[in-house]
User: Which sequence fits this backbone?
């Protein structure tokens, strides 16, 4: 039996410490980090090159917002699995992202265990929907 392939993940946030935190959470789940970006424009470009299974994408970023990057990626890759990252608890923005195709969202103030649980549940729901 071939070895189980790791989930390939990409993390996009304009704050270095947040990228490190999310990367730590993702790696602790047995996933492989295939790329990181610090702005929405780079996120769109890298996503097309790397084609990760999972993208964690900050909403508020320079050059191109997370919402704009989400829209661009979903237009080209409709089945992309994207979880939005937010420090805001702005329900309207989060709902907009879900309507644009995000699979879910994570508040940056959650504990590492809570982040892991949200990612696991969101991934499971996504896999069921395919």
Assistant:
């Amino acid at each position: 039996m071939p070895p189980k392939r790791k989930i390939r993940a990409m993390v996009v946030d304009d704050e270095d410490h947040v990228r490190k935190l999310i990367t730590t959470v993702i790696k602790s789940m047995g996933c492989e980090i295939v790329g990181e970006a610090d702005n929405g424009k780079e996120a769109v470009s890298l996503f097309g090159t790397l084609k990760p299974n999972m993208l964690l994408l900050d909403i508020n970023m320079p050059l191109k917002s997370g919402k704009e990057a989400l829209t661009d990626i979903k237009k080209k890759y409709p089945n992309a699995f994207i979880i939005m990252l937010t420090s805001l608890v702005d329900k309207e923005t989060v709902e907009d992202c879900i309507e644009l195709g995000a699979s879910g969202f994570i508040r940056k103030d959650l504990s590492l265990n809570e982040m892991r649980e949200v990612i696991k549940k969101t991934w499971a729901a996504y896999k069921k929907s395919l």
